[in-house]
Write a structure and sequence with these properties.
The protein is mainly beta. The protein has a single domain, classed as Porin. The protein is built from two helices and eleven strands, in the order ααβββββββββββ. Strands 1, 2, 3, 4, 5, 6, 7, 8, 9, 10 and 11 form an eleven-stranded antiparallel beta sheet that branches.
């Protein structure tokens, strides 16, 4: 079974569950439909650049299956489009006086786009806050890598015969949701690659024997999202006054 087949089947399953859950009251009692949208703050550990300096979109549908005595536990399956990568700002221009300026490495841009299928288990406390952990399967669907070497050509594509980044990114997830208003939740999430997405060799040009070292690279992502759970029973209802 190919990766594309898995993605198509996951999308079909999510669509069927969402449509059925939103249209049939009996089904919606044990399965909720949701949609999340927000921002990724990303970096790539091992690329010699530090800080969450790359911003990107993240969002997509999900289904939630509550379980347990008081339905405080739940399993969530999502289908997300997620933009990741890394940034290093270019601080110099060709007019600056820098030794060996044509080979001076000054700026870096990496865009990695994924379609992801996260699977998480949550515990909800007092219907107001939910914490969860899980795993995510990510399929890379986009890639762009640019460097600026402080010459007149400006930003240019990294010269590689083929994309050096792995097609698949398996990640571990820690997740926290806080109810904002009725069915709207504020969601914070930390995602980290379990396996390297690339192994890269770095070279310092102009040094004796060209100093080299190798680093394994990992996606490191903080997500801030809004999640709306369409058919979730409201925890608080106005009580009718009784005589």
């Amino acid at each position: 079974m190919t990766v594309l087949t898995v993605m198509k089947r996951s999308l079909l399953i999510l669509t069927v569950l969402l449509v059925t859950g939103l249209s049939k009251p009996v089904f919606s009692q044990w399965m909720y439909g949701a949609f999340s949208t927000g921002l990724n703050l990303t970096q790539v550990d091992g690329d010699e650049e530090y800080g969450y300096k790359k911003f990107g979109f993240t969002g997509g549908p999900s289904v939630i299956k509550p379980f347990g005595k008081n339905r405080n536990w739940s399993v969530t399956m999502e289908l997300l489009f997620s933009m990741k990568g890394s940034r290093q700002r270019s601080d110099f221009s060709p007019a600056d006086s820098i030794a060996d300026s044509l080979s001076y490495y000054d700026g870096y841009k990496l865009d990695l786009n994924y379609v992801e299928i996260p699977l998480l288990v949550h515990y909800t406390d007092k219907k107001m806050i939910a914490a969860g952990v899980g795993f995510s399967y990510g399929q890379r669907v986009g890639y762009k890598e640019l460097e600026d070497h402080n010459d007149i050509t400006g930003w240019r594509h990294v010269d590689t015969a083929a994309c050096p980044y792995e097609n698949v990114d398996l990640s571990v997830i820690a997740d926290l949701r806080i109810r904002l208003y009725k069915r709207l939740w504020l969601n914070g999430r930390f995602t980290y690659s379990m396996l390297p997405i690339r192994t890269r060799e770095f070279v310092v040009a102009g040094t004796p024997d060209d100093v080299k070292w190798t680093r394994k690279q990992y996606n490191n992502v903080i997500s801030i999202r809004l999640t709306y759970i369409f058919n979730e029973p409201l925890p608080f209802k106005n009580k009718k006054k009784t005589n």
